[in-house]
Amino acid sequence: MSEHPFLRACRRQPVPHTPVWLMRQAGRYMAEYRAVREKLGFLELCHHPAAAAEVTVTAARRLGVDAAIIFADILLILEPLGVGLEFASGDGPVLHRPVRSPEDVRRLAPYDPADALAYVYEAVRITRRELDGKIPLIGFSGAPFTLGSYLIEGGGSRNYLLTKSLMYEHPQAWHELMSLLAGLVNGYLRGQVAAGAEAVQLFDSWVGCLAPEDYRRFVLPYTRAAMAGLSPETPVIHFATGTSGLLEAMREAGGDVIGIDWRIDLDRAWQRIGLDVGIQGNLDPATLLAPVAEIRRQAADILARAAGRPGHVFNLGHGIFPSTPVDHVIALVDAVHELSVR
Amino acid sequence: MSEHPFLRACRRQPVPHTPVWLMRQAGRYMAEYRAVREKLGFLELCHHPAAAAEVTVTAARRLGVDAAIIFADILLILEPLGVGLEFASGDGPVLHRPVRSPEDVRRLAPYDPADALAYVYEAVRITRRELDGKIPLIGFSGAPFTLGSYLIEGGGSRNYLLTKSLMYEHPQAWHELMSLLAGLVNGYLRGQVAAGAEAVQLFDSWVGCLAPEDYRRFVLPYTRAAMAGLSPETPVIHFATGTSGLLEAMREAGGDVIGIDWRIDLDRAWQRIGLDVGIQGNLDPATLLAPVAEIRRQAADILARAAGRPGHVFNLGHGIFPSTPVDHVIALVDAVHELSVR
């Protein structure tokens, strides 16, 4: 398994073709997934190890990708904090008891992921068994900043004003919160690895809302702590969006592979993070709504920018949109394999 | 007037202090503005030259900034296209008849801004007179991409899927739409200059959603056409957000000053666009919710990155949030003046 292209690429070893997997590859755009969701709510599905394993494996097989990622949500780690997590249909996540003051932060009690998130580890074990060594399994977690932003905003946000206000007005409470989250994330990732995850991805999806200096002061140490002690046995992918101005600082925080979005040319991004680290990306997921000829054109452009250099994992710059045609996704996977044969 | 610090900075001439103005400096965070809005709806205010001039001048005086910007909205230019523009309170703009197909694009009829937007030119004339030479007046327009995205989405958007779909699936209709908008924007900016605007800003607020290659193929030529023939008599500020990966291409499109957001360090951005062009920015508007000491700290950091080099116009990276305390805004303006004295 250590010879699989995905793991080899994460370690910047030569590969027979560029490995590809896609964020949210098990999701609403796929009929098989929608069929499962007719029986189970989103959180129910996350909580049900066998069903989570099923949607993970089904999607990976259907697409022919080079890695599977465990079916879960970045917010599961917040649920045991008692914040009232709910996924209302169509509206995205809501946290009914957000954390907005130093008092709120101090009320949060750390817990042991091995107890409260044991169902995720079980899903990892079942999925790993069902994949049967054919492709590697990726575990994942949200990163402290992105998790903190959901805790504070009580859901998604456009401008992160509550998050930034807590950061600026109550820096000590901010640092306590980040520290607590970094510890939980680190334990959770280690637990997934112990259960069988062969690589992990840290999603700091919304950290691109910060100025570079604020990232360094308020986030970087905790992102680093969240990844501590994982690499090099297990490759760590450090992913975020909107980070064209933060790449050097993200690299400094850590990760064997830096995941970028589409808002920067891949060759330019790789030069900036350094060629001694891997890179993951970077097709705009909106491109999957375009005609297949355009999808192939853009995939070829990205592969050309990677220049066959060891260390490129092909992916989108963010998750697949629900309105994406499945055959376009398959066409992308095929195109990456076909166009990257060494 | 050509000796005013703001205009001198736009031309990269030495200044006694770094000039500062703030996007949305006349807006809901200010009691004087809210008082006017109790009598007039948002579009009514835009359509009323004397009232628009009043809010412009009042805000500039209250803050002590180095430039005023005409009170208007980037979407006014779309109104004469018959798309049913409405500003529902609290919800942002809605266009009731969006443009989503090649047929929709072909139905759009170009018009003469000198007729349909004469009220903006009148507001420019009145404001210029009332400013009485104390500070320069900036005119502005939305840029073709950002205007196109509103036309197609029918309002704001998170992922711009309809916009990108039209671009990819009907490239000819896309190019026709951009061409029509570029012509309108160019005429509108020229009209504002003829009426007395001493500089203009082109807002391509949402273009940061694009991959650099798509920007070059689908947007750059039209942005350039929108600015054609204005500079060097009238400085042109070319502003957008989320463009840390697009800066070189934006520079190539044109502008005497490139406006950036806070997601990149100002010194790094200036190196990338080239030191032979001015730069505007780049405080995170969320910082204005922080304690004044933090605001001053961040203003000092930005000024230090500009290193006293001629060509820096201090601004936020985007508009002032409605929840911003007015005294924080005044504290920022004072800090920039005080900390940048040569």
Report on this model:
Two copies of one chain form a homodimer. The first copy, chain A, has 342 residues and is an alpha/beta fold. Chain A has one domain: TIM Barrel. In chain A, 48% of the residues lie in helices and 11% in strands. The first copy, chain A, contains 16 helices and nine strands. Chain A has helices at 5-10, 31-39, 42-47, 49-63, 102-107, 113-116, 118-131, 144-153, 161-169, 171-195, 212-218, 220-227, 247-253, 266-273, 292-306, 326-339, and strands spanning 68-69, 85-88, 92-95, 137-142, 199-203, 236-239, 257-259, 278-283, 312-316. In chain A, the strands form two sheets. A seven-stranded parallel β-sheet of chain A has the order 1-4-5-6-7-8-9. A two-stranded antiparallel ribbon of chain A has the order 2-3. In chain A, β2 (85-88) and β3 (92-95) form a beta hairpin. In chain A, α8 (144-153) crosses α9, α10 (171-195) packs parallel to α12 (220-227) and α15 runs parallel beside α16 (326-339). Chain A is globular. Chain A starts with a helix and ends with a helix. The mean pLDDT of chain A is 97. Chains A and B meet through α9, α11 and α15 of A and α9, α11 and α15 of B.
For the biggest β-sheet of chain A, the strand order reads: 1-4-5-6-7-8-9
User: How would you classify the helix and strand content of chain A by structural class?
Assistant: alpha/beta
List SSEs of chain A in N-to-C order: HHHHEEEHHHEHHHEHHEHEHEHEH
Which CATH architecture of chain A is right? Alpha-Beta Barrel
What percentage of the residues of chain A does DSSP assign to strands (E)?
A: 5-15%
Overall geometry of chain A comes to globular
Oligomer: homodimer
Radius of gyration of chain A: 19 Å
Q: What does the main sheet of chain A amount to?
A: 7 strands, parallel
CA-CA gap between termini of chain A: 20 Å
Please report the first level of CATH classification, the CATH class of chain A. Answer: Alpha Beta
Integer count of domains of chain A: 1
> pLDDT average of chain A, as an integer?
97
The most extensive contact between chains is:
A-B, 35 and 35 residues
Provide the helix percentage of chain A.
Answer: 40-55%
